[in-house]
Write a structure and sequence with these properties.
Number of helices of chain A: 6
CATH architecture of the largest domain in chain A: 3-Layer(aba) Sandwich
Helix content of chain B: 25-40%
Number of domains of chain B: 2
Oligomer: heterodimer
Number of domains of chain A: 2
Largest interface: A-B, 45 and 59 residues
CATH class of the largest domain in chain A: Alpha Beta
Strand order of the largest sheet of chain B: 1-11-10-9-8-2-3
Distance between the termini of chain A: 41 Å
Largest sheet of chain B: 7 strands, mixed
Number of strands of chain A: 15
Distance between the termini of chain B: 37 Å
Shape of chain B: globular
Structural class of chain B: alpha+beta
Number of strands of chain B: 15
Order of helices and strands of chain B: EHEEEEHEEEHHEHEEHHHHHEEEEHHH
Radius of gyration of chain A: 19 Å
Structural class of chain A: alpha/beta
CATH topology of the largest domain in chain A: Rossmann fold
């Protein structure tokens, strides 16, 4: 065995965990930095393959601000062996990184438009970098509306940030929960119920959607009903991913490799596949 | 190599010699033995057909004596037997369960390892620089077409696959034109054979004279020409050259199965919900045999594991198959949970989405998937049935 001088996209780079942040009972954020001090530019909506020594590797979208290229954050739910092991990592521990992978949100291409972000559950994490970008250059966009649905008030992610943003006069933030508890005074119902009343001009609007596939399907339908053009809707797809570079075959959806051609797709581009079962 | 994405017929029979030296040579079996020796002396691992496990497999060979002289395959959909033939032909195999894929893209490869006892384990990449060059003897035109397809998959995109590229760039190929076709062959309709059309260093056609094989050889590269010169072969006679081309033309003409490739991408894209898929799914065992024997299927799993101490971690890549439930698993369940959707995924990828992904069909017409399917599902029949069903609806 010898070190290979040519960068191999299947080789993880050892990064350091800076801190772990609890977001909800099953959700946490890992803040990580390169041990080599490398700057890590990425596009909002891209993801990394994160590797826990000896346990395995999973694709996790980047949830931090693209303007910050030294400290990178990933927010994930604990659902499998790798994310369970990730939750046990502490400051100073090593985590393997390959990325950034895939195609992100079309932030520059939608300048001048109203932007409606629709998030379901953990789907808020890949949308947060887009929000940072939009807010950083607020004057370049029309209305900015975030519609966020989650299971219960305890599951609301990035609560302090959402409160902070909601206090701004130029952002519309609407949160809804599937199941309320006694102290909840907000909206109850699935996120699609927020779309009909949300303040945006459908023909001027670009929608960025991320959440469970079923939630996205209904969201796109509802947006269409409001009059948003299909070519103005973008969604982030989830599929099994092993390589992240379009060669292992797992993430295929029709002719697309979701890891390489996505995860963000224009709705018009994949509509013909979305309605079909088990594609 | 011919692009297989559209229906193409084979180039017309050209009895005139081609290749850099402009002349066809004649080799005999002892010359092949010398050729193998020459390659081995130059440090090549020679991979050729040999009888093993009651099949004609591609494996390491050290002499021509290991070639399957006098052996043939009797095949049909879901059926494969090795049996004796009347003459001493060495390259009568067509549908070996193995192809060059096994050697260029090995079924299990270590990618790297990392030592967890270090402060921050640094991946150490498997060193492939000392791997011997591979010399393939006895690949057919469809095999070369398959290599051309995998070249696009592993070396044609933004990332070059290190494992594949290392083996591929060093490979030397001595190919054989098919002088007969198996009942499961349909390369003629895919435009991928049986004529050799470049892609090899030396190309041979096996003739039987008095029960013994002789080889009409043409060169396809400078390295091939040098190798051949080392054997100082006599020229092939005009009659031998014509006989060789005649046999290859007959092999093409005698193919029973055909794939109608015209408009095939749209056919699949418009028929995701065709009832024919349910019909074939009732027969499909989702055993994954077709993906394992297919010379172009490239899906692989990335596996991370450790030794028993948990200290030494290793990343491996292993062939995977779209027929398994795990293949499409994401949190909450598999995307393709029904056998119908998994068969549909395989065939749609092979014959349609592949064209969008790599600019070529994923099928080269070798017929391995027909032979090695335990229930004899025949993709040419499925495509024909899909066309019929699409027309009817």
């Amino acid at each position: 065995m010898a070190s290979n001088a040519v960068a191999d996209p299947l080789v993880s780079r050892p990064w350091r965990v800076k801190r772990r942040i609890r977001e909800a009972h099953d959700t946490f954020t890992l803040e990580i930095e390169s041990r080599a001090g490398e700057s890590f530019p990425f596009t909002a909506g891209q993801f990394n393959m994160l590797h826990v020594h000896g346990v395995g590797e999973v694709p996790i979208s980047i949830s931090s601000n693209p303007a910050e290229t030294a400290l990178i954050r990933h927010t994930t739910r604990e659902v499998g062996p790798v994310t369970k092991a990730m939750r046990k990592l502490d400051a100073g521990d090593t985590i393997g990184v390959r990325g950034p992978m895939g195609v992100g949100w079309p932030i520059e291409a939608i300048e001048g438009r109203d932007v409606v972000l629709v998030a379901g559950g953990i789907g808020l994490a890949p949308l947060r970098p887009a929000l940072y970008r939009l807010i950083a250059e607020r004057e370049k966009y029309g209305k900015i509306v975030l519609l966020y649905g989650t299971r219960s008030p305890q599951d609301i992610l990035f609560k302090h940030e959402l409160e902070h943003w909601r206090a701004q006069f130029d952002l519309e933030i609407h949160v809804t929960v599937d199941r309320a508890i006694g102290t909840w005074r907000g909206h109850v119902g699935v996120v699609t119920t927020l779309i009909a009343r949300a303040p945006f001009d459908p023909l001027e609007t670009v929608a960025l959607v991320c959440g469970p596939e079923i939630m996205m399907r209904y969201t796109l339908m509802e947006l269409g009903r409001r009059g948003v053009r299909e070519s103005d809707m973008y969604l982030s797809m989830e599929r099994n991913m092993k390589c992240g570079i379009g060669t292992c075959g797992h993430c295929q959806m029709g002719p697309f490799f979701v890891c390489r051609d996505g995860p963000v797709f224009n709705y018009a581009q994949i509509k013909w596949l979305l309605g079909k079962a088990e594609v | 190599m011919a692009d297989a994405s559209d229906s193409q017929s084979n180039p017309p029979v050209d009895p005139a010699p081609s290749g850099p030296d402009g002349e066809r040579k004649l080799l005999r079996l002892p010359d092949l033995d010398r050729l193998i020796g020459l390659l081995r002396a130059r440090g090549f691992r020679v991979i050729g057909p040999t009888v093993r496990d009651a099949t004609i497999m591609l494996g390491d060979i050290e002499s021509a004596a290991q070639l399957p002289s006098g052996w043939a395959e009797r095949v049909e959909a879901g059926f494969y037997r090795v049996e004796r033939r009347d003459d001493a032909a060495c390259f009568a195999h067509r549908t070996s369960p193995e192809s060059a894929k096994r050697h260029l893209f090995p079924p299990a490869q270590k990618l790297w390892r990392a030592d967890g006892s270090e402060d921050h384990p640094q991946p150490v990449v498997e060193d492939r620089s000392t791997a011997p060059r591979l010399a393939f003897l006895g690949l057919h035109a469809c095999d070369l077409a398959a290599i051309a397809v995998q070249d696009k998959v592993f070396m044609g995109g933004a990332y070059v696959d290190h494992v594949y590229a290392t083996h591929r760039r060093g490979a030397l190929i001595i190919a054989v034109q098919c002088t007969s076709s198996a009942p499961t062959c349909f390369c003629d309709s895919m435009g991928t054979g049986p004529h050799l059309d470049g892609g090899c260093d030396l190309g041979m056609t096996e003739l039987i004279e008095g029960g013994e094989p002789v080889y009409v050889v043409h060169t396809g590269s400078e390295e091939g020409a040098q190798l051949l010169a080392g054997l100082a072969p006599p020229p092939a006679s005009h009659a031998q050259v014509v006989a060789a081309e005649q046999l290859v033309a007959e092999a093409a003409a005698h193919q029973k199965r055909r794939m109608q490739t015209e408009g095939i991408k749209d056919l699949f894209y418009q028929n995701y919900e065709n009832p024919r898929w349910e019909e074939v799914a009732r027969r499909c065992l989702t055993c994954a045999n077709c993906t394992m024997v297919c010379p172009t299927c490239f899906c692989a799993n990335i596996e991370d594991g450790t030794d028993l101490s948990g200290r030494l971690a290793e990343r491996r890549r292993r062939w995977d198959s779209c027929y398994t439930l795990d293949f499409s698993y994401i949190h909450g369940g598999s995307v393709r949970y029904s056998p119908m959707s998994r068969y549909r995924q395989w065939l749609t990828h092979k014959l349609a989405t592949w064209i969008d992904q790599f600019g070529t069909s994923g099928c080269v017409g070798c017929g391995r998937c027909i032979v090695w399917c335990p229930v004899g599902i025949d993709l040419t029949e499925e495509v024909a049935a899909l066309r019929m069903s699409a027309r009817a609806s």
